Structure formats: C-alpha cells, structure tokens
User: Fold this.
Amino acid sequence: MNLYEDYESFILVVIFCISLLGLLAISIKGFHSRKKIQRYKTITYQLMLSAEKKYSFGDKKFIYVVESLYIMLPERIKTKQTKDDVQKWVQQIYNEFRKEYLDNS
Assistant:
C-alpha cells in the first residue's frame, strides 16, 4: 500500500463516521421531539378532564383547553405556532381520542 491509498481509506472512514454521527443526532432529535409531543398530549388530556369538571358547555371546555395549553407553551414554540395551530392540534387530539374510545366501546 502506498501513502495515497492509506489517505484515501482514512478519508472514507472519516466520512463514514461523520455520516453515522449525523444519523445518530437526527435520531436522537426525533426521539426527543416525539417525547415532547407525547408529553403535550398527556397535558392536553389532563386539561380536557379538568374542563369536563369545570364547564358544562362544549365551547367553554374547548376554549379552556386551548387557552391553558397555549399559556403553558414555551416562547420558542409560540413564535412558530399560533393559537389557531394549537386549536387545530387540540381538535385533532380530541378526534383521535374519540375515535379510539368509540372503536374500543
């Protein structure tokens, strides 16, 4: 083997290692994102249960959940997500929960 072949192999190994580290970083970030989403889903379910106890009308319940959840969000999320986005997300969670509940009944 000459010096050129060793250098070429070394570069390939370095590129391969950097690629693996990049994939690992993306996987970890995705895992943490899913974990955070699950945490906010749990909070949303808790807010829905609290709203059931506090209010008798559906609109008040929905507004309570959206407002409470939006207040809890960190500012960095609020810069990317509007209250309308939170409303849509809460409605989507409610629809999923309702479908799952009806499917299991």
About this structure: The chain has a mean pLDDT of 81. The chain has one domain: 3-104. The two ends are 70 Å apart (CA to CA).
